[in-house]
């Protein structure tokens, strides 16, 4: 039964075909380096899609996981547990939040936020206050509710009928939001930086307007910080870089540093709608997940780590600008902290994947964000030498694609 050398061909035999992974299979990671089955080394600027916030197998995270593994793995929410209580306290102390709900992923955290918003409208006014406003280009996860709130048609195609009462408007467009919002709106959901949608940061004035309009119409402002959260923006959460505070915030990805965990943070006023029995999750608040996430938060909230994100941002951005000065390949390099997008010039639109594949050949892992944008979301503590080496490889890859 045991296949001693599982390979990419096996994927097509035994896996549902919804993914199309590359042919190399990484088997070991340390810091920002990965090794595949053949022992080839890679520098990881993909970071598990903004998840491996402290790189691979960070010794303090490994220790936290092992320590908890010897004590207690799982209880369910019939009981509470110490790691979950500690993590919730940390999150409340470090952010605007008064209350925390734990989930296992970004989509689940968003599902909780959206259900909370519906209950908020229902409690305050009644069922007519159910409308949810979201933006085109946004991404909120793959459950049917979150994919419907997300602003990318291709992800709901073939899955209708979808949940109703959801309106999509242009991102960063204050007038569109003013026109769409009403007293029937229960929530406005926004990413402070649209991640999957191309690494597009919100304008400060836009988030400020969203805050003002939500207050005016008694709607909840939900920030989806699944991708931007836990230090990635250079502050613990991106809302802190804008000085605009939501009522509800969702966080996952970097929170577990590679261990699956998600959380919804809320004000006491919003949280009180989810009374006993209204929502739940078997694994939410799992002790292993919370022990690891607690350690991630400990480390990431150290001032030197957050300052390091800013200096690495500048270093990475400067490298990309230098590459662009030579090859004239990007229209813009943008983003916050260590979530960076480089938009390809028109001639290369639709070809982002070619650059990702070429980079992999050069031993550098990067991501796309849509068909036109190269995305980088490395470890927040990636050694500067690894950034430099990765940029040498990326430039070689770009030169090869241009010459092909
Ligand atoms: C990745 C992502 C999600 C979905 O998270 P999962 O853990 O894959 O469910 C939701 N929102 C944003 C902004 C994301 O980047």
UniProtKB/TrEMBL annotation:
<dbReference type="InterPro" id="IPR050103">
    <property type="entry name" value="Class-III_PLP-dep_AT"/>
</dbReference>
<dbReference type="GO" id="GO:0042802">
    <property type="term" value="F:identical protein binding"/>
</dbReference>
<feature type="binding site">
    <location>
        <begin position="106"/>
        <end position="107"/>
    </location>
    <ligand>
        <name>pyridoxal 5'-phosphate</name>
    </ligand>
</feature>
<feature type="binding site">
    <location>
        <position position="282"/>
    </location>
    <ligand>
        <name>pyridoxal 5'-phosphate</name>
    </ligand>
</feature>
<keyword id="KW-0028">Amino-acid biosynthesis</keyword>
<dbReference type="InterPro" id="IPR004636">
    <property type="entry name" value="AcOrn/SuccOrn_fam"/>
</dbReference>
<comment type="pathway">
    <text>Amino-acid biosynthesis; L-arginine biosynthesis; N(2)-acetyl-L-ornithine from L-glutamate: step 4/4.</text>
</comment>
<dbReference type="InterPro" id="IPR015424">
    <property type="entry name" value="PyrdxlP-dep_Trfase"/>
</dbReference>
<dbReference type="InterPro" id="IPR015422">
    <property type="entry name" value="PyrdxlP-dep_Trfase_small"/>
</dbReference>
<keyword id="KW-0663">Pyridoxal phosphate</keyword>
<dbReference type="GO" id="GO:0003992">
    <property type="term" value="F:N2-acetyl-L-ornithine:2-oxoglutarate 5-aminotransferase activity"/>
</dbReference>
<keyword id="KW-0808">Transferase</keyword>
<dbReference type="Pfam" id="PF00202">
    <property type="entry name" value="Aminotran_3"/>
</dbReference>
<protein>
    <recommendedName>
        <fullName>Acetylornithine aminotransferase</fullName>
        <ecNumber>2.6.1.11</ecNumber>
    </recommendedName>
</protein>
<dbReference type="InterPro" id="IPR017652">
    <property type="entry name" value="Ac/SucOrn_transaminase_bac"/>
</dbReference>
<keyword id="KW-0055">Arginine biosynthesis</keyword>
<keyword id="KW-0032">Aminotransferase</keyword>
<dbReference type="GO" id="GO:0005737">
    <property type="term" value="C:cytoplasm"/>
</dbReference>
<comment type="subunit">
    <text>Homodimer.</text>
</comment>
<feature type="binding site">
    <location>
        <position position="139"/>
    </location>
    <ligand>
        <name>pyridoxal 5'-phosphate</name>
    </ligand>
</feature>
<dbReference type="GO" id="GO:0006526">
    <property type="term" value="P:L-arginine biosynthetic process"/>
</dbReference>
<dbReference type="GO" id="GO:0030170">
    <property type="term" value="F:pyridoxal phosphate binding"/>
</dbReference>
<feature type="binding site">
    <location>
        <position position="281"/>
    </location>
    <ligand>
        <name>N(2)-acetyl-L-ornithine</name>
    </ligand>
</feature>
<feature type="modified residue" description="N6-(pyridoxal phosphate)lysine">
    <location>
        <position position="253"/>
    </location>
</feature>
<comment type="similarity">
    <text>Belongs to the class-III pyridoxal-phosphate-dependent aminotransferase family. ArgD subfamily.</text>
</comment>
<feature type="binding site">
    <location>
        <position position="142"/>
    </location>
    <ligand>
        <name>N(2)-acetyl-L-ornithine</name>
    </ligand>
</feature>
<dbReference type="InterPro" id="IPR005814">
    <property type="entry name" value="Aminotrans_3"/>
</dbReference>
<dbReference type="InterPro" id="IPR015421">
    <property type="entry name" value="PyrdxlP-dep_Trfase_major"/>
</dbReference>
<dbReference type="InterPro" id="IPR049704">
    <property type="entry name" value="Aminotrans_3_PPA_site"/>
</dbReference>
<keyword id="KW-0963">Cytoplasm</keyword>
<feature type="binding site">
    <location>
        <begin position="224"/>
        <end position="227"/>
    </location>
    <ligand>
        <name>pyridoxal 5'-phosphate</name>
    </ligand>
</feature>
